[in-house]
Amino acid sequence: MSRIAVVGSGYMGGGIAQVAAIAGHEVVITDATPEIARANLDRINAEADAFEAQGLFPEGAAAAVRHGIAAADDVESAVVGADLVEEAVPERLELKRGTLARISRANPDAVIGSNTSTIALGQLAPPVENPHRFLGVHFSNPAPFIPGVEIIPHDGTSEEAIATAEEFVRSVGKLPARVRDVTGFVLNRLQYALFHEATQLVEEGVASVADIDTIVRSTFGFRMPFFGPFAIADMAGLDVYAFCYASLQEGLPDRFPTPAMLSERIAAGRLGTKSGGGFRAIDAARTDELIAYRNRAYVLMARLLEELGPSPFDDPR
Asked: Is NAD one of the keywords UniProt gives this record (predicted)?
């Protein structure tokens, strides 16, 4: 790939364009009007200058953005000749459908990704000509700085299109993860499940909003830059998780049933890292290496947080 088009040049689309240009792709952006596209290009360039000055972008990144991104007057001229097109217009079904139809008519060959965060790809695919090349490529905000990207095929997406999207994501320094086309995908189902439980705890008078934020970011959230929920469970011990589920069920029997996949692994003797793996497989001989990595990661995270100081949410000034 060398030419990338981004349709929708707001903060998400602009961030995607920035990382693509920094990676060496030729990028064309467009928006609802030529004026909006040009104004957003000015903002994208100014942001890149500021990010480089702040040390958030590497040296030379601002120049790569300034020379690598151009603004087109309309969707059709933006996507002609593109190898991959990323749709990043606002999260409204009919707007996205109309935009995707225009993209697919103007370029019959490019892989087309949608940055949708909530709309099922099966709902977006019908107006796309040659829909085998269409899938979700969901960056998170702020796109320049969040590494993970959901790759979401619909039922008709080809393996070639998936591979092309994953190649693009890796080329811009991000981590692709494949997700089935289900309501909420993975990121938002997990994010909103946590938020929903947090609101219930506040409503029940268990803890304040500020104290819940403190607990999340300084305990299990502290681990999550390094390990996902299954790896954390494996390190804790799946038998320990089962005991905790039993305790939760005494007071909250309907909200915390023990997951079947947890019980199945325990019954099979797969208790986590202490048995050579539970959800994630790991050689028992590497347990000491894993513990050393974990401990060093947490110490370095604590040092980083100390260096940064409290966020404006938590700064008493």
From this structure: yes
